[in-house]
Predict the 3D structure of the following.
Amino acid sequence: MLRIISMAPVFKIFLFINLIIFNIEGKAQYNENVIRAAYIERLTRFVEWPQITSRDTGYFKIGVYGDAEFYNILKIALIDKSIKSRKVTVIELSDYKEIETCDLCYLSGISYNDIEKIMASANKAGVLILSAGKDYGTKGIHINFYIEEDKLKFEINRKAVSAGNFKISSLLMNNSKII
């Protein structure tokens, strides 16, 4: 006897699973912090750091100051990743003066008055500074994220990058806003 199986239940299950998956992807797609975390890993591919001999070369150390939510997302996003042939470690900084121990640092919630001394310290230590603060790029941060037309973009402060002796690929420079 030939049995005809109704596809309705199978279709409903398939549709339900797809809705869940696309809903999760949709939320992640528009989560600015998740996209920013992915950008950070990719940006490092186009940056050459100055030679700093005193830094621990066993790990590529990324510090996050002033944004606990982004710290948690970045830690998950970069688990088991390598940058510059070194395993990544992400740490939450309790004081922005700790940035000198990092290779890269993401800063949030700092005052404009502190940016100059932070950047002087970071440039001396060879720490690439990223942020997403309004006007932080024009105030001297190396790379600053911003939203334009509902898209996450970044700007590079050429003078700050030069002061820190970083070399940034022309591919990255051509695809960013230069300040």
Observations:
- Residues 42 and 108 are 20 Å apart (CA to CA).
- Residues 1-30 have pLDDT under 50 and may be disordered.
- The chain has one domain: 32-178.
